[in-house]
Protein: Molecular chaperone TorD family protein
Amino acid sequence: MLDPTQLDTLAAGFTVLARFHQEPPDEDTLATFRQMLDEWPLPGTEGATQGLQVLRSSEAVAEDAAAVRADHAGLYGTLAVARVAPYESVHRGQERLVFDAHTLQVRDAYRTLSLQAPKLNREPDDHIGLELEFVAQSCLRALDALDQGSEADAERYVRLGADFYRDHLGQWAPEMLGRVVDEAHTAFMAGLAHLTAGALESYAQATGVQTEDA
Structure:
């Protein structure tokens, strides 16, 4: 069972990463994030070390929010064809299409926490940002359960998150994030991908989960 400190740091890190993969930061958010890099809650992995270094280089070369927004859109296909699709189904499905069986499996998993994709049936449920958010929410629910004195419920929430990582995130996100590093036009997006890979490694270490072949 994870202790409250572990749950809090995992929730904090995954919440930030989930947000930035879904929507790039504006100028104020970017400045605040850069000021807090030294306080990143999930250090200690190779991905975190690389990510923080690359993100600091983004500030050093004065990348602004407009540059990050353009790169985010180009990478994830907000305005055109994606350089790296942000959806699990594209990476794992035989037909490489969205809204396939993997999307529906992810939708079912979200229901275990009474969650659903914000644009249900209009955009795929299995976006990298939404999957990261599920992990964050599982940690937050476990924290709430511990606050209410229910260790059994807390363990159940942790297991839901770990199972989701094993069956979904861990099966496709590391490779996808590596492609983002290769395809990114900004240090910010490359650094974000490294940092996310490090967070996934931290989560796997903390929960003891191991992925099987996809």
Summary: The chain has one domain: 4-207.
